[in-house]
């Protein structure tokens, strides 16, 4: 799923980021991230159905953990972002919506399982 995050970041930087302020670009990117991740997870659950709600919860938690690990590993060691900058995106009180992306990733397997059952 890292390719979705990287692709979404490229779309942001090469597309709309130059036309809006940084916070707005972050918010747009968060919304498109939710859409892209949700579509991908929907496709995966069609291709490989999740057999139980318990397994849907486990899949969501694994994806959440791997996404956070990827974000901090790639963001800090590859992209060169400071730890403070990475944690900054978690401050929803300042309009940072990254937490909503993580909630979507964690809950999508359960939502799609319930829709299909």
Structure description:
With 117 residues, this protein is an all-alpha fold. The protein has one domain (2-116). Helix content is 77%, strand content 0%. It has helices at residues 2-14, 22-47, 53-78, 83-88, 98-116. The radius of gyration is 15 Å and the shape is globular. It starts with a helix and ends with a helix.
Mean pLDDT: 95
Overall number of strands:
0
**How far apart, in Å, are the first and last alpha carbons?**
25 Å
Radius of gyration: 15 Å
Helix content: over 70%
Instruction: Identify the overall geometry.
Output: globular
Task: Give the tally of structural domains.
Answer: 1
Helix count from the secondary structure assignment: 5
Mind describing the biggest β-sheet?
none
Taken in chain order, the helices and strands follow as: HHHHH
Residue share in β-strands: under 5%
Structural class, please?
mainly alpha
* Uncertain spans: none
Entry keywords:
single chain; 117 residues; mainly alpha; 5 helices; 77% helix; 0% strand; globular
Q: Any chance you could write out the topology, listing elements then pairs?
A:
Elements lengths: L1 H13 L7 H26 L5 H26 L4 H6 L9 H19 L1
Could you give a quick summary of the protein structure above?
The chain has 117 residues and is mainly α.
